[in-house]
Every structure is written in C-alpha cells, then in structure tokens.
C-alpha cells in the first residue's frame, strides 16, 4: 500500500498552492539534502512532465530550493527561498526537460560542493507524498517517511552481513532492505529502512567497514 | 502489518459488525499501523483542524493571489448571504464560501492543510465549518469529521489516485467532495452505509472531471471547482440521509474513476496544455502572467 497513514490524506500542513508540486517538491529537495549530508554549494535541478510544464505557477522551483535549504513544507521561508539560497551561497539552475519519465511529477537533483557530488531523483506521487526513485544512478524506492540508511559499497561477499551486524549491535531494527548494483562486482547500493533515527556514531562505524565507500541517512 | 480495511465495503462492514463509527475504525487503524496512542493521533488531527480554521478565517477576510487571478470571492459570497437574498440556501452557500476561502489562501501561497491535496483543500473544511453552525458538534466530533474524511480518502489513494497529475480533477476535488459528503453524514447521525452512499453519489457526479489549470496555477478553475465540490458534497449527504442509495456500489465508482483517469489524455492531467488552459483567454492569461507566450498544444 502506497498510503499507510490517515495523515497522508488529511495533511500535510503546507504552504500552497499544490501538494504534489509545492509540498512534494519541497520534500524531494529536503530528502536530497539529507542524503547529501550537508548543504550543497550548487545544484542543477532537472524537472520532468507536469513539473517541467507548470513549475513556475506552482512554486515548484522555490519549493525544491527551499527543501535543499532544509525548509519543511510549512516553512513560510519557502516563498522567498531564492533569496535565502543567495544569502547562504547555494547556486542553482532550473532545467525543464522534455523527456518522458514513468511518473509525471519527477525531479532530478544533481548537487555538490568541493568535497563531492550526488544525484537524487524523486517523484511526487500525490497529496505531498514522495518517493526517491534513484540515487547516483541506482534505482531504488524510498518513501522518506521512515528513517533510512544508504550505503554505497563495493559489490563483495560479506558486505551486507557486516552492515547488518553493525546495526544489530546497536539494537537498530531493519524494517525493509534492498540492494542494487549497476554491474556485477562493481559498485552497489544498500538501502535500509529502519525503525528509529540513526545516530551519527553508528554511521561513522558503518563507514569504517571494509569495502564501504559512502554512508548517508534520512532521518524522520 | 496489514490494514483493517482495503476498500469501502470492508470499512462499512467492519463498522457495522463492531457497531462503531467510520471515524473510529480510521483511528484504530492509525493506532495499529503507527503504534501511537489515541491521544497523540487526536492531538495531531487537532493541529490540522486549527490550520484549517485559520485558513478559512484568513480567506473570509479577503486575500489576493500573486498572479491576481483569484481572491475576494469568499467575501462576495458572505456579503450576499448577509443580504438575505440567497436562493440555494444560506448553509449551502456558507459551505461554498468557506471552501473558496481556503483555496484562495492556498493560491496566495498561504498555509493550508492538504485534504487530500492542496488544490482540493477547500472542500472538507468548507463543509465542516458550515455544518458546524447547524449541528453544533463538540470539538471531538469536528476532529472525527476529519478521520471519517481520511478513511474514504485512504481507500481512494490506495485503490486509485488523489492527484490531478495522475487522474485529473475527479481524483482531487472528486475525492475531496466524496470524503466531505461521507463525513457530513456521520456528523449528522447517519449510518456507515449512508456515509458510503454519500461518497458514491458525490464521486459519480465528479467522474471525468479534467485537471486543466490556466497557466498551470492552482487558481482557475480550481477555486470554483472546490466551490462546486462543497455544494456537491452537501447535496449528496442530504440525499444519502434521505435514504437514497447508489445503484453502483461505492468501490465500483472508485474503480470507474481510476479507469477514467488512466485513459484521460495527458493534456488534461495538470499539464496546463488542454481544457480551459488551452482556451484563447486561458492562453492570453498565461502569456500575461509569465510575460511571454506559454506553449500550448
């Protein structure tokens, strides 16, 4: 089931005018920032389908930028997010695309700073609810409604067990987990949805496990 | 963990079997799914209700959107009601004006609570704050109104869609109107089955409604679609309370809405390329607002 809570239907409390184009867009931006782990210095924001056609009228552009600045859906600063971006040193570019994506409301955010880059693709599925459909080229399905850990690792035996063991040691329960890879033996991505927010300390420990290249999280 | 109901039939059967209100089933499911207490869930819904109250109040004082396309109609209607000349009835028009008020605030990038979406956020609070004056509900009953609405919206969201981009306006304002109708019936003392009939009657009259916002803005025709969604909900609730039933069962109406939405042309699903958005005036407004011609197929 895509919708599990009554508050997916009666909610969110948000700045208008569109739950999918404004609130959902803000959430995609915010989850992207969460995954990146810090405020990016620059962002290229690719918009597809209805997002590309109507982003100006719906404030999709200010909402995504607001999300990248860590503003929530009801944060009044979304309206003036462009000014805040300027003040906080975030350069961005809006790129409406003509290509068709599977879902009409898709945004792809490529962001970075001097320390690294990341690409995150999100879809806004209605009523302000979103799914993250791709991270750094890896297909996945992440709702952002639960805390989650993303681990980029070399595709080697034992990697998954080591990460799971580390979580078990800290009594973190795994709700859902999936692993994807672009090519066998190359880089792979673990997506682990967990029941509670994750401490920085645990992320640190996971990042020290052999063959792990990057760890990021989404807190709820 | 499985939900307590997957469709309206199961929802109504469960309510009847356990002699409970629809709102109660929704609350119990939320407790089961999230592990949160009844008090926590009620408190969160109360906060949503406060946002709705504030939005209605703000809209009734008059707002204007950035584009200038919408704003001020809620005030016009309230003044008209006060003149004592209304033909369709003060309660109905009160619901309409409060729905309009909410959507005018939404269009002005104000704070609202999505029910189920922002573009359709007027219908549920509009009808709630209108029937409140007639039924004098307790605060708890007002909060329950939102849980009953939510229960029906939950079924639609999981079996069809609730966004205009996915299924047209029938999925947004259509769902919102059905949700409101069902909640009005419960607040007025109707049975769970009557809630389901009210939802079915409402949605039947919203089937096929396209999403064709002028300039892509959630303003024209969205504000007035919320107005008519509220009116539709009020009338359907009265019909259900009078004992009228839908020949097509509620879940099948939702199924029909889903299939209609799937076959609806993309130009009519929130892309601002068809319908009213593609009229000469719609295109001219878009060009005026964005300072250049917006391409429309």
Automatic annotation (TrEMBL), chain A:
Keywords assigned by UniProt, alphabetized: 4Fe-4S, Gluconeogenesis, Iron, Iron-sulfur, Lyase, Metal-binding
UniProt GO MF annotations: L-serine ammonia-lyase activity
Reactions it catalyzes: L-serine = pyruvate + NH4(+)
Organism lineage: Bacteria, Bacillati, Bacillota, Bacilli, Bacillales
PANTHER family the UniProt entry points to: L-SERINE DEHYDRATASE, L-SERINE DEHYDRATASE, BETA CHAIN-RELATED
Family note: Belongs to the iron-sulfur dependent L-serine dehydratase family.
Top-level taxon of origin: Bacteria
Domain ACT: 148-220
Organism name: Ureibacillus aquaedulcis
Needed co-factor(s): [4Fe-4S] cluster
Signal peptide: none
Pathways involved: Carbohydrate biosynthesis; gluconeogenesis
Protein name per UniProt: L-serine deaminase
UniProtKB/TrEMBL annotation, chain B:
Top-level taxonomy: Bacteria, Bacillati, Bacillota, Bacilli, Bacillales
Name of the molecule in the record: L-serine dehydratase
Record-stated family: Belongs to the iron-sulfur dependent L-serine dehydratase family.
Catalytic activity as recorded in UniProt: L-serine = pyruvate + NH4(+)
GO molecular function term, any single one: L-serine ammonia-lyase activity
A Pfam family it matches: SDH_alpha
Necessary cofactors: [4Fe-4S] cluster
Residue ranges of every copy of the Serine dehydratase-like alpha subunit domain listed in the record: 18-277
Species whose genome carries this gene: Ureibacillus aquaedulcis
Keyword RNA-binding: no
Protein EC: 4.3.1.17
Pathway entry: Carbohydrate biosynthesis; gluconeogenesis
Broadest EC class assigned to this enzyme: lyase
Domain of life: Bacteria
Keywords: 4Fe-4S, Gluconeogenesis, Iron, Iron-sulfur, Lyase, Metal-binding
